[in-house]
């Protein structure tokens, strides 16, 4: 049965507290963690802007004992968190590009995709994922509400620039026929009315079509202390158990699941109509390894304690550096850096600037909630600060050798999972 009381912030121009589980409607929800008040992660004003009033939203995490869903305690109007000028393009990191190529290879082999098969991507961003399916000969269609969709259209990936919902789904099915594959990579946790999204997905799918989602994985998030991925774009933090429960409410059965490296630890989950595909053993294995009920309550309490300690440890490293008069910069400004910077309390007095690679749309702006400027990384090599904190620490292994090779001589710090010098 569908819950009737679900927080809806769309159209409110503000936010609505989550008082009932976003998926099953259960109340009350358990408090897991509060990170305090946070600005929207992509609200970045140009350098030199006089400080002015900006929205800040309470950021807390809740747990549903009924369906296992860990979720944000506040729904914010999507027009605030996904403005048309949303400065994120998925094609920019190698790890994501490789993952999308892998998703295409894996699904095409498993589902036997041919030339007539339609692949629809929800939240298709700049078309990076679909470009793989297009190269392999499938028909493709993207759905992306922000201006990044223009980039996809320009590169030949047909993209509808609208918010996805049942109405768009019916239009797609009418104009393009049923889809063999519907993908939702790193956006399935973002859309507030998740039941209407799944309704829309089911409406587009062929009888034996597959819905493939990629989401941050709750268990990985807990294991590697990724509290920095908690922000208002991410309304839900799925375990396989909670995702299975959600999809099951719509007659969809999970038939394959596996961990993938995206965003510091995600899950790729294949689902289809009940009985359409053989359920692989991967599903049972992943479910068996997940804590549930009282074990999850305990796991979440440990997480909370460790998050607080990690904040204190990072501040302690920075305190030592500052007492010696050293200068500290930041490396890269992913959305997650906003949560870390604001939760730990970093500002322009502690971090001189944050570097992004040339071409990043974030250059020339301030980090959200602060006056830390985001600059072209050329600044780092010419300025040579004593230390740099890698905010995209989940790809530190990829970044650190590059920074050294390009001539950075300072020390590097990773803030998570354990704050330390590399
Ligand atoms: Zn629930």
Question: Which band does the percent of strand residues land in?
Answer: 15-25%
Looking across the biggest beta sheet, what order are the strands in?
Answer: 8-7-6-9-10-13-12
What is the general shape?
A: globular
Secondary structure tally: strands: 19
**Cofactors and ligands present?**
zinc ion
Head-to-tail CA distance between termini: 51 Å
Main sheet properties: 7 strands, mixed
Spatial extent as radius of gyration? 21 Å
Helix percent reads: 25-40%
Unreliable runs: none
Number of helices: 13
Structure description:
The protein has 422 residues and is of the alpha/beta class. It is built from 13 helices and 19 strands. It has helices at 78-81, 94-111, 128-135, 148-154, 166-176, 194-204, 218-223, 240-248, 281-288, 294-323, 335-344, 378-383, 396-405; strands at 15-17, 30-38, 57-63, 70-72, 74-76, 118-122, 139-143, 159-160, 179-185, 205-216, 236-237, 252-260, 266-273, 328-331, 354-356, 374-376, 387-390, 411-414, 420-421. Strands 8-7-6-9-10-13-12 form a seven-stranded mixed β-sheet, with helices on both faces. Helix 2 (94-111) crosses helix 3 (128-135) and helix 5 (166-176) runs parallel beside helix 6 (194-204). The longest helix is centred in the C-terminal third of the chain and has 30 residues, at 294-323. The N and C termini lie far apart (51 Å). Bound molecules: zinc ion.
């Amino acid at each position: 049965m569908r819950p009737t009381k679900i927080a809806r912030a769309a159209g409110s121009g503000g936010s609505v507290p989550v008082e009932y589980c976003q998926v099953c409607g259960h109340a009350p929800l358990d408090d897991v963690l509060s990170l305090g008040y946070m600005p929207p992660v992509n609200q970045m004003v140009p350098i030199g802007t006089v400080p002015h009033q900006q929205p800040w939203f309470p950021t807390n995490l809740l747990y549903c004992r009924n369906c296992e869903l860990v979720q944000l305690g506040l729904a914010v109007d999507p027009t605030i968190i996904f403005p048309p000028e949303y400065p994120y393009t998925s094609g920019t990191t190698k790890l994501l590009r490789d993952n999308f190529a892998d998703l295409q290879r894996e699904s095409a082999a498993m589902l036997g995709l041919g030339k007539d098969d339609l692949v629809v991507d929800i939240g298709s961003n700049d078309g990076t994922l679909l470009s793989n399916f297009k190269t392999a000969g499938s028909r493709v269609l993207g759905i992306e509400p922000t201006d990044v969709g223009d980039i996809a259209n320009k590169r030949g990936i047909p993209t509808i620039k609208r918010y996805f919902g049942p109405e768009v789904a019916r239009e797609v099915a009418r104009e393009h026929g049923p889809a063999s594959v519907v993908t939702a990579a790193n956006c399935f946790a973002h859309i507030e009315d998740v039941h209407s999204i799944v309704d829309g997905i089911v409406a587009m799918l062929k009888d034996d079509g597959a819905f493939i989602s990629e989401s941050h994985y709750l268990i990985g998030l807990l294991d590697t202390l990724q509290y920095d991925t908690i922000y208002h774009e991410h309304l839900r933090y799925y375990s396989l158990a909670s995702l299975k429960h959600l999809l099951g409410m719509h007659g969809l059965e999970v038939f394959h699941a596996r961990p993938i490296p995206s965003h510091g630890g995600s899950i790729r989950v294949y689902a289809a109509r009940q009985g359409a595909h053989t359920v692989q053993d991967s599903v049972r294995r992943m479910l068996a390894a997940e804590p549930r009920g009282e074990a999850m309550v305990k796991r979440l309490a440990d997480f909370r304690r460790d998050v607080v300690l990690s904040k204190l440890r990072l501040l302690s490293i920075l305190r030592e550096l500052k007492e010696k008069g050293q200068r500290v910069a930041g490396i890269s400004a992913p959305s997650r850096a906003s949560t870390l910077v604001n939760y730990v309390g970093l500002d322009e007095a502690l971090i001189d600037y944050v570097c992004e690679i040339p071409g990043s749309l974030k250059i020339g702006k301030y980090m959200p909630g602060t006056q830390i400027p985001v600059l072209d990384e050329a600044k780092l090599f010419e300025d040579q600060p004593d230390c740099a904190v890698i905010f995209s620490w989940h790809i530190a292994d990829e970044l650190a050798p590059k920074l050294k090779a390009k001539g950075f001589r300072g020390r590097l710090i990773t803030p998570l999972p354990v704050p330390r010098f590399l």
